[in-house]
Amino acid sequence: MYLSLVGLTRGGAMTEFQEKLRQQHEESLHRELEALLSTANHADAQSSRKDFQGFQKLFHRFLQVKGPSVEWSKINRPPEQSVQPYEKIKAKGLPADISTCLSKLAVVKLNGGLGTSMGCKGPKSLISVRNENTFLDLTVQQIEHLNKTFNTDVPLVLMNSFNTDDDTKKILQKYKHHRVNIHTFNQSRYPRINKESLLPIAKNMAVNGENAEAWYPPGHGDIYSSFSNSGLLDKLITEGKEYIFVSNIDNLGATVDLFILHHLMSQPADKRCEFIMEVTDKTRADVKGGTLIQYDDHLRLLEIAQVPKAHVDEFKSVTKFKIFNTNNLWISLPAIRRLQDKNALDMEIIVNPKTLEGGLNVIQLETAVGAAIKSFSNAMGVNVPRSRFLPVKTSSDLLLVMSNLYSLDAGSLTMSKRREFPTTPHVKLGSSFTKVQEFLSRFDNIPDMLELDHLTVSGDVTFGKNVSLKGTVIIIANHGDRIDIPAGAMLENKIVSGNLRILDH
């Protein structure tokens, strides 16, 4: 039925048939959602009803969409003035009263993700990344340092999901005596739908047992409605906050930038910029990242999922699309309120197909927070240094941030001044390093990587103490072999393969 609905032609009779089919799908979905709500207690039913209203809007739009969301021929590069170089914004300097600007800011971290891809249970933000500090520890330290340095009160807001909320709240107790006010709100909980019937697979409102795979958090584009529904949006506006700085909690480069904040605050009232997206120059490693384009006279985020198959290679090229979205965003709170009230936030739907453990094919309907850029006035991009994009998605990323390439100061990581090149080494660790616990067990301590350009490690490999890696190093242990890099070894532009065991005697 899913295929028949989406694949129909646009003829008159067919359109009428299509319309009936669409209504039928929406009515069936509504009935199923009401039946699910009847299994919840009163308080849960109240909040879930709001979630379901959001889901039904998304579902309605999903059924309306015909063909790709962009016409390739209408895509243009953004005009020069709409993506400013960071150096130009920094050249303005800072006012004497930067604390006045800070008093109008709140920091929002997207904290809905689990650490499962790195072999951890619970919220990803609770993984230790540096000197026993978790992502959350580092975030709290950064904001506390800001508040102490400028005698201000920038609050931290965490957007949790139903997957991360309980564990995160337990941990927040430990920050009670830190100089930072922490608020949380939950993003929505949406039902996964069967790809064929387009109906929810959940049997009731529980999130465990047979229902564990029935629900999902619908991407970070949900921030606008869930922030508003939680009451926190109005609370912050009442407290005089004007902007939020939004970023992923696993991006260790996403600290509050005073120059960008000052730029926002210094705009004339009638030309206030309501949305800044931080972008940075694309490298070969970033070819799948979303990019900014000009489309129908608006700045717009173009994600790889929206690109017609025939143009994917063009999208990935570093020459045509030179920048990508870091997901560090500065957004006006009054503008969010206005657009929410008018129901005027327009974000493309991302259809995310999944296959569950039992083999069932389901669909998740999601949106991206940056996709709303086209709905805001005077939106712009700022081309920031690469150092503001330091995500930790894999153990390869973790190795970099744990190494002497970076120094840690007040929760912020900065590239070591002792490194001659400002670029980050390219690190590829094999499947034996995927899980954090296993990764840690393979290093007696983290090697010296100050002069490293490229590291590839594959197979059963361990590193002794005080190993030094320079230039291009490739270490490959074939299946059944093991390589122990001895303590104190210095590998420079070396390929190590075969079998190397060092045994105590």
From TrEMBL:
<comment type="subunit">
    <text>Homooctamer.</text>
</comment>
<feature type="binding site">
    <location>
        <position position="220"/>
    </location>
    <ligand>
        <name>substrate</name>
    </ligand>
</feature>
<feature type="binding site">
    <location>
        <position position="250"/>
    </location>
    <ligand>
        <name>UTP</name>
    </ligand>
</feature>
<keyword id="KW-0548">Nucleotidyltransferase</keyword>
<dbReference type="InterPro" id="IPR016267">
    <property type="entry name" value="UDPGP_trans"/>
</dbReference>
<feature type="binding site">
    <location>
        <position position="124"/>
    </location>
    <ligand>
        <name>UTP</name>
    </ligand>
</feature>
<dbReference type="InterPro" id="IPR002618">
    <property type="entry name" value="UDPGP_fam"/>
</dbReference>
<dbReference type="InterPro" id="IPR029044">
    <property type="entry name" value="Nucleotide-diphossugar_trans"/>
</dbReference>
<keyword id="KW-0808">Transferase</keyword>
<dbReference type="GO" id="GO:0003983">
    <property type="term" value="F:UTP:glucose-1-phosphate uridylyltransferase activity"/>
</dbReference>
<protein>
    <recommendedName>
        <fullName>UTP--glucose-1-phosphate uridylyltransferase</fullName>
        <ecNumber>2.7.7.9</ecNumber>
    </recommendedName>
</protein>
<comment type="similarity">
    <text>Belongs to the UDPGP type 1 family.</text>
</comment>
<dbReference type="GO" id="GO:0006011">
    <property type="term" value="P:UDP-alpha-D-glucose metabolic process"/>
</dbReference>
<dbReference type="GO" id="GO:0005978">
    <property type="term" value="P:glycogen biosynthetic process"/>
</dbReference>
<dbReference type="Pfam" id="PF01704">
    <property type="entry name" value="UDPGP"/>
</dbReference>
<feature type="binding site">
    <location>
        <position position="219"/>
    </location>
    <ligand>
        <name>UTP</name>
    </ligand>
</feature>
<comment type="pathway">
    <text>Glycan biosynthesis; glycogen biosynthesis.</text>
</comment>
<feature type="binding site">
    <location>
        <position position="187"/>
    </location>
    <ligand>
        <name>UTP</name>
    </ligand>
</feature>
<feature type="binding site">
    <location>
        <position position="393"/>
    </location>
    <ligand>
        <name>UTP</name>
    </ligand>
</feature>
<comment type="function">
    <text>UTP--glucose-1-phosphate uridylyltransferase catalyzing the conversion of glucose-1-phosphate into UDP-glucose, a crucial precursor for the production of glycogen.</text>
</comment>
